[in-house]
Design brief:
Blueprint: E1 37-60, E2 65-75, E3 78-79, E4 81-87, E5 94-96, E6 99-101, E7 113-115, E8 120-122, E9 126-128, E10 133-151, E11 156-158, E12 164-173, H1 189-195, E13 205-214, E14 223-231, E15 236-258, H2 271-274, H3 281-303, H4 321-371, E16 374-380, H5 390-402, E17 410-412, E18 424-431, E19 450-458, H6 469-478, E20 483-485, H7 498-516, E21 527-535, H8 538-546, E22 558-564, H9 577-590, H10 593-598, H11 610-615, E23 625-631, H12 639-642, H13 648-652, H14 658-673, E24 684-691, H15 699-703, H16 705-713
Parallel strand pairs: 16-18, 19-20, 19-21, 21-22, 22-23, 23-24
Antiparallel strand pairs: 1-10, 1-15, 2-3, 2-8, 2-9, 2-12, 4-10, 5-6, 5-10, 7-8, 10-11, 12-13, 13-17, 14-15, 18-24
Helix pairs in contact: 3-4, 7-8
């Protein structure tokens, strides 16, 4: 159909038991009704859904192996029937950076095919061994759906306007390991990985599933949408998918009812009898032909062709309206069939350009949707040290959660299960008088730059680089051209002093730049960017590293600093006595120098403490953007120290640590406030406050640990 090939499911998929039976009760039947049933007429639309899989990229898969993807389509609890598929990759090799890796066993692996036993489409199998390995799929399938249309006397409603659910499953089979284990005299580990090969009869198992919810345009019943499928945090990859849907026909089909069904009030023998009571024949004719005409117009626009005209009946009466509708819809369906077939046949050739266009639309819609859960307020830079009132945040969050959510045309179905539990955020952007740059607007264009963009993600206290993997994965998803480094130099020494930890980080970043992105060493400050993300104690380690002479050549390239719940002014004035007691216990249990420095207990005088000295070092003012993220629910790191504001207890404290706290906050932010408006590189500070709705209340939510870790554990956050 439409020049597509159809392949039957083979033995390679037999180990996976079929999860879905082919539901064809909604398909047109020609057999006679069984005794005890009544036949009636129903209006049905034929939807053709094309699922096109463009590219696959390994961001952070759990293990090496043979992978394939299965796709199934449902609407209103009816499963679509696949009737054709295609597989037209321009090259079978995979790529790591710019290095080509031939798929030597591609001919031995299962090919793309329709799996009849479960009404699914399966891509060809491919081998993934390396991080950031990517390949072109350029495969897809067509699914047919018969959906009932109901007349509400204003328009035809198809399938109660229910969305289409597209379920994508990631399947994996193990690779065969080399015969002998590697030894000191054997080839290196990379050679052993290269020697792994697919089994002759691989057994696939399902490792991850993601369901996309696609909403059709209610007027045209069409959709053209892009979505980057990532599956799960443990099997994080990027599968570029585009979905195309069109209404191809509107017919009046016979369906069978059980006479015992009380919902069936009468038996209608023909379409003419169905429309007999319609007094306004021209309006009825327009109502029943408009969906097909709108679909034809939308298909012409998708093909960028001149709109085709159809000679529809103009003068209709009550006696001829049914025949006129059937005749006109059949004429439109004939043209639609040819145009839609041409569109599908062009997808393998021109799908890349269409994917890029739809990707831009998806990014704008996602920013607009998440922007509906974000309130943004511009604040004068002179108020940078003043904290916001807690009641102001609560009012803002309450208003955000009461807003009606405008669901995008395509989204992850799991996010819509409990939208009230998604986090909300309040942003305060500190601007100078002449600042007009749009930062948080959905239409804000991405800034252009030359050279590489290195993003360094530093973990916190007694943590590891593995804890930053979800953040790293999303950074690579949203910024595919960026290079992300998750440092490991402090994994075994996170309980020591911040000074040596900062030095280790500086040396690791320097060595990484020399080997992976040497263009950052260029003296031209406009070539390349260097950004840092720090979680918890990681932000103080980053600030310490920036004071090291090792990173001095890269300071002009500093772009963004994102601090996730970090104690920039020390853990002072903690409102929770429970957390204060826990800090005291940790300090005496671990005898950690880091904890002493965090509470300014590493020196007799607060002015001689490490944190106080660090606040005098150049820091925030070196960056173009500084984002300070905190939460009122995070008791581990209070909001005032996470966002470097001066709270009321610190203002009135004259005997304790109030003076030291005020001095540290002033040292951090006064250089930013003193920047001239004519300065070429001015720092924009954004304070982002998150509010969570956890599914259950437990010890972690009570003590604030859940909110503290949500930045790196929660996909929604």
């Amino acid at each position: 159909v439409y020049g597509c090939t159809r392949r039957r499911g083979g033995a390679a998929h037999e180990p996976l038991p079929p999860r879905r039976a082919a539901l064809d009760a909604h398909a047109p039947r020609t057999e006679q009704p069984k005794p005890g049933t009544a036949a009636t007429m129903a209006t049905h639309g034929t939807l053709d859904v094309v699922v096109h899989l463009h590219r696959f990229r390994n961001v952070d898969l759990f293990s090496r192996g043979i992978y394939m993807v299965r796709a199934a389509v449902k609407c209103n609890n009816k499963q679509a029937i696949p009737h054709g598929c295609y597989s037209k990759p321009s090259v079978l090799s995979t790529f790591v950076r710019d290095q080509e890796i031939p798929q030597t066993h591609a001919s031995d692996l299962p090919a793309a095919q329709v799996v009849d036993s479960s009404s699914e489409f399966s891509t060809r199998a491919f081998v993934i061994k390396y991080r950031d390995e990517r390949l072109e799929l350029n495969e897809g399938a067509q699914f047919q759906l018969l959906i009932e249309a109901k007349d509400d006397n204003t328009r035809l409603i198809f399938a109660n306007d229910e969305p289409i659910d597209i379920t994508l499953e990631l399947l994996m089979a193990e690779l065969e390991k080399p015969g002998s284990p590697p030894s000191r005299t054997s080839p290196r580990r990379s050679s052993a990985v290269a020697a792994e090969k697919p089994s002759l009869s691989p057994t696939f198992s399902r490792v991850a599933t993601q369901t996309l919810r696609v909403r059709r345009d209610p007027t045209t019943n069409q959709v053209h949408a892009y979505f980057p499928v990532t599956f799960s945090s443990m099997h994080f990859c990027q599968l570029d998918v585009t979905v195309h849907c069109a209404l191809l026909h509107l017919k009046f089909r016979k369906r069978v009812y059980d006479r015992a069904d009380a919902s069936v009030e009468s038996t209608i023998a023909s379409f003419e009898e169905l429309l007999r009571d319609n007094s306004d024949a021209p309006t009825t004719h327009r109502r029943y032909t408009q969906p097909m005409l709108a679909s034809l117009t939308a298909t012409c626009q998708a093909l960028k062709e001149r709109e085709q005209t159809v000679n529809v009946t103009t003068l209709v009466d009550a006696g001829s309206v049914s025949k006129a509708i059937e005749r006109d819809n059949a004429a439109v369906a004939k043209k639609l069939f040819l145009l839609w077939g041409r569109f599908v046949s062009l997808l393998p050739r021109d799908g890349k350009a269409l994917c890029e266009t739809l990707q831009t639309t998806w990014l704008r819609d996602q920013r607009a949707w998440w922007g509906g859960r974000l309130s943004s307020t511009d604040v004068r830079i002179q108020k940078l040290l003043q904290p916001r009132e807690t009641d102001e945040f609560r009012t803002s969050f309450k208003e955000l959660r009461s807003r009606p959510a405008q669901t995008p045309s395509i989204c992850d179905k799991s996010l819509l299960k409990e939208p009230a539990r998604l986090p909300a955020a309040a942003a305060h952007v500190y601007r100078r008088r002449n600042d007009t740059e749009a930062l948080l607007s959905p239409d804000a264009p991405p800034s252009k730059y030359r050279g590489p963009h290195l993003i360094v993600m530093q973990h916190g206290w007694y943590a590891s680089s593995f804890d930053m993997r979800l953040l790293r994965a999303y950074a690579l998803l949203l910024f595919p051209g960026a290079i992300v480094l998750s440092p490991q130099s402090n994994e075994d020494n996170s309980g020591g002093s911040m000074g040596p930890m900062g030095q280790r980080l500086a040396h690791e970043v320097h060595n990484f730049i020399k080997h992976r992105c040497p263009d950052l060493s260029d003296a031209d400050p406009s070539i390349g960017r260097l950004s840092f993300v720090g979680h918890s104690a990681g932000s103080m380690i980053v600030r310490t590293a920036l004071a090291s002479p090792v990173l001095k050549p890269y300071l002009p390239k500093l772009h963004a600093f994102i601090s996730l719940s970090s104690s920039h002014c020390g853990n002072m004035f903690v409102p929770s006595t429970l957390i204060s007691g826990g800090m005291w216990a940790l300090q005496h249990l671990h005898q950690s120098q880091f904890m002493d420095e965090l509470q300014l207990l590493d020196a007799p005088k607060a002015e001689d403490a490490f944190m106080h000295k660090l606040s005098k070092q150049p820091g925030f003012e070196r960056f173009r953007f500084v984002v300070l993220v905190g939460s009122l629910q995070d008791s581990y790191v209070p909001l005032h120290t996470a966002q470097a504001t001066i709270p009321r207890p610190a203002e009135v404290d004259r005997k304790g640590g109030g003076d030291a706290y005020r001095q540290m906050a002033t040292n951090l932010l006064s250089p930013v406030m003193q920047q001239a408006s004519t300065q070429a590189k001015r720092t924009t500070v954004v304070r982002l406050t998150l509010d969570y709705r956890f599914a259950q209340t437990n010890l972690d939510t009570v003590i604030g640990r859940a909110a503290h870790l949500a930045y790196i554990d929660s996909s929604a956050a």
